[in-house]
Queue: 2 jobs
Job 1
Amino acid sequence: MPDKTGHFGDFGGRFVPETLIYALDELAKEYARAKHDKKFIRDLNYYLAKIYLKREDLLHTGAHKINNTLAQVILAVRMGKKRLIAETGAGQHGVATATVAALFGLSCDIYMGQEDIHRQALNVMRMKLLGANVISVGTGTQTLKDAMTQALRDWVTNVRNTHYVIGTAAGPHPYPEMVRNFQSVIGKEARKQILKKEKRLPDYLVACVGGGSNAIGLFYPFFNDKNVKMIGVEAAGLGLASGKHSASLGAGASGVLHGSKSKILEDQFGQIKNAHSVAAGLDYPGVGPEHAYYQQIGRAKYVSITDQEALDGFKLLSLIEGIIPALESAHAIAYLKKARKTIKKNSLVIVCLSGRGDKDLHESY
Ligand SMILES: *Cc1c(COP(=O)(O)O)cnc(C)c1O
């Protein structure tokens, strides 16, 4: 312990302007009081849940998408396909597809809703710089669903020479299983890393869910670890009650969309409803079928976070860690803040930081 004036031997003390002395005295007094105060200790302890970020935002091209596109382009080359097509929402999958097309010298067309072209302009420039052709989709809500519909139409027409690189763990078989396996590198690495660092498995896995690829990639390698709780965070948009959201698992019903049966947002006539989220990558009225299954068997829990909560999460992580998350990933961050009271002391939590937020600065700032 230092002496009364804060010296450790020769060192320490207070070498500051006189004006700060009052504040320092005040702080010293408060700290002396709090040190033995049960409430202070409890408040402090609650922050001691250890939260690890699985940093997919550090991947080449800025999100987890490249895990999948790299594997799919190799398949395309093996099948003799000369052209790649893809849908994109936030533009991250478009950029990752354009990147691997450039790497392997394939031609590349990316379908993107007009609305997303506006809100993710930076990624449109990146795709073009990588030599891809970005095709604007003006139908429907001009977002991800419409882009995927157009990409499927293109594929039907050009299937002989074209491979469709689906960007998430959805679509017809074998995509959900295949993309899940390609993204499982996230969970396999996380499992190894946490065992090395903490010598035990995590208590919670948390990830945002659009189509569900980053989440299933994190969850799947822990499927048999029954004590590891899995939480998928969907976009509640303006609130579930408003009808303007993307929570297919939280508020949807069984149905078929884009080639597979899963939980989807549909009206009373079975027509697909418009989704909404401030995060372009979550703005989709369906979800990968494996999540619908995990929900049904109770293996994972699915919650939702509003646009406003996500924007707050975006700022929170930026402020406390200096890490700017993608607005999609910010949903997972925001959930942790919201649910902090339910997370026990000394819990280990792994959050998938699916991507970085440079693309969103203009929308969120
Ligand atoms: C595409 C994307 C998502 C949503 O897709 P999932 O398949 O649900 O993972 C989430 N975060 C980021 C950063 C994305 O680019």
Job 2
Amino acid sequence: MAEGPLSLPDTNAAWFERARRVIPGGVDSPVRSFRAVGGRPYTVARGQGAYVVDVEGHRYVDMVQSYGAVLLGHANPVVTRAVSDAAASGTSFGAPTRGEVMLAEAICSKVPGCDQLRLVSSGTEAVMSAVRVARGFTGRDVVVKFDGCYHGHADTVLAGGGSGVATLGLPGSAGVPRSAVADTLVVPYNEVPVLGRDVACVLVEPVAANMGVVLPAPGFLEGLRRACDAVGALLVFDEVITGFRLHYGSASTWYGVQPDLWCFGKVIGGGLPLAAFGGRRDVLGVLAPDGPVYQAGTLAGNPVATAAGLAVLESVGPDDYEELSRRVAAFAHGLQDAASSAGLDVQVPLAGPLVGLFFATSPVRSYPDARDAAGNGLYASFFTEMIRRGVVLAPGPYEAMFPGMAHGDAELDVVLEAAASAARSLAAGRG
Ligand SMILES: *Cc1c(COP(=O)(O)O)cnc(C)c1O
């Protein structure tokens, strides 16, 4: 038997140990580390529909679904075939392909006001590029963002970030020079800020989904539109989560408020590295080669990723989303019931099939509310009880749940049964 790492047993513990030697913290994205919930991560061997299987053969109902990048369930045969067909014709060319045109058409046709878009490889890049376009178009520097919204990890927008930044309790990040955020204003979510004439853009998640799920208060998005128009600032919707997640289209049509620029990611890449920023034709006209704003990418519009994204968008229609939303609404009700039967107070915010969970007595409307709810530690205990019962949630209190097309009533019932039992266990432990 060989010495060294390869002789370690094929267990979650052994893989995590091995990972920690060569990958900082053992993970390629911090929230995966289980720091917020205790214990150590499972190492995924494979996924199938609503389920993931770890290297020890444990099978879990997966409510993470790659943080929303997977809509049709893992290893969906249509997506898998599209990916392997595309790969068989070459994986990257550095020249235009049909797939990027077709995916851009598919997205723009479903998002009124989004005349054009450019494909990139991550949501971070999409936001970074949209902000540069907004600054280039307006000739202004200031970016307004909201406390608890996450827009990827570019320097300018990491301040007051949700998701992993919130999970680890960071005010922003070390390594970001003061100069990089000198023109970033962080303001409270669900309050319309007063804008100066130096504002290039207001950047917002139309449904905040990186501090748990926080719905926009009535009038909030409309108010942002008016505030931007009043001073000539651009409104940017970061729809990396909401796009093609709430329904077959964007949050902008769902709420009837049209921004000037959009960022998309997650669902539109079918689980491969792909994202996009798009918007008004005149605004995007500032981009090179036609205009002076530079933006580029070796793997941008990658043919394997566009094939996966197209396969997803072509496999679903409005009815599929409506049915999923109905299933998830019943699930949300069930979750609420399971908790209250055990004597626990929870909030289960819902937008289409996007669903959150806060251990809180009243609705969560802002980042301070979300922090209060996360601070009681109940999420971590609930997470641990759920994974014991064969259900994986995101390993941090600031993430949404992502039931998708592969989560039928049967799979959601498994989650509800586990939740009822987990909630009783939590209540018993507290009492
Ligand atoms: C995930 C996310 C991003 C960042 O996307 P990456 O692909 O992880 O870089 C940006 N904005 C929002 C709203 C997100 O949820």
